[in-house]
Automatic annotation (TrEMBL):
PANTHER family: PEROXISOMAL BIOGENESIS FACTOR 11 (PTHR20990), PEROXISOMAL MEMBRANE PROTEIN 11C (PTHR20990:SF1). It is found in: Peroxisome membrane. It comes from Mya arenaria (Soft-shell clam). Keywords: Membrane, Peroxisome. This is PX11C-like protein. The keyword Endoplasmic reticulum does not apply. The keyword Secreted does not apply. The lineage of its organism: Eukaryota, Metazoa, Spiralia, Lophotrochozoa, Mollusca.
Length: 221
């Protein structure tokens, strides 16, 4: 029961859990034309639609976030909202260009996060190397104490934990990027070449990592 409450107890956690269920069902449905496959595909699509509608309420907090920290990772939300309104004929315009713009913005934001994470990994590795050098220097000068050694070990442990978190972030964003490019119009890299089962698998991996990282952050805070 406690686990279930943790998964659906907050909007952020619930969104990530719904996303995970959405992609698991997409993977299970695959390209099946059987009744079971069709039903799983319908449920997966409805879960995706549910997340889209809930994201309509994210504009105000995301706008505040953008003012504080820049454009952020979800600049595609307004584009998605316009595409959603056009699909439902609330706005009298073609939803295609807006949906494409949303995908492109998502792909660009994912690439930005990947490069940012790789840069942070490099900086963390340099910091670890510097700490190890300091430890060796202290040992050579015969000034190392048990307290200092423990302190350095603790710092290195924290850096290694941050490095593992960043590697997970890279995998998460890469799997999402695979899907984002696959859903672009045919002719760009691997767009349109992967099956529904493959995109379901990629989405499942990224969603599981998102959920794991979110709860790890909340547990440590």
């Amino acid at each position: 029961m406690d686990t279930a409450v943790r998964l659906v107890g907050s909007y952020t956690s619930r969104d990530k859990f719904i996303r995970l269920c959405q992609y698991i069902l997409k993977f299970l449905a695959g390209q099946q034309k059987t009744n079971a496959g069709i039903r799983l595909g319908v449920i997966s699509s409805e879960l995706g639609a549910c997340r889209t509608v809930l994201r309509l309420f994210d504009d105000v907090p995301m706008f505040a976030y953008s003012l504080s920290y820049g454009l952020g990772r979800k600049v595609y939300y307004p584009l998605e909202h316009i595409a959603w309104l056009a699909d439902r004929k609330i706005l009298e315009r073609n939803s295609g260009p807006w949906g494409l713009a949303c995908l492109v913005a998502w792909a660009v934001s994912l690439l930005t996060e990947i490069f940012k994470s790789i840069l942070q990994i490099r900086l963390i590795r340099r910091a670890q190397i510097q700490l190890l050098k300091e430890r060796e220097l202290e040992a050579q000068e015969e000034r190392e104490t048990a307290e200092m050694s423990t302190s350095l070990k603790g710092q290195i442990k924290v850096l290694k934990s941050q490095e593992r978190e960043l590697y997970l972030a890279v995998i998460e964003h890469l799997t999402d990027l695979v899907n984002a490019i696959n859903w672009l119009p045919p002719g760009f890299l691997w767009s349109g070449k992967f099956s529904a089962r493959f995109t379901g698998a990629m989405g499942t991996i990224s969603s599981a990592i998102k959920l794991y990282r979110f709860h790890k952050r909340t547990d440590s805070s």
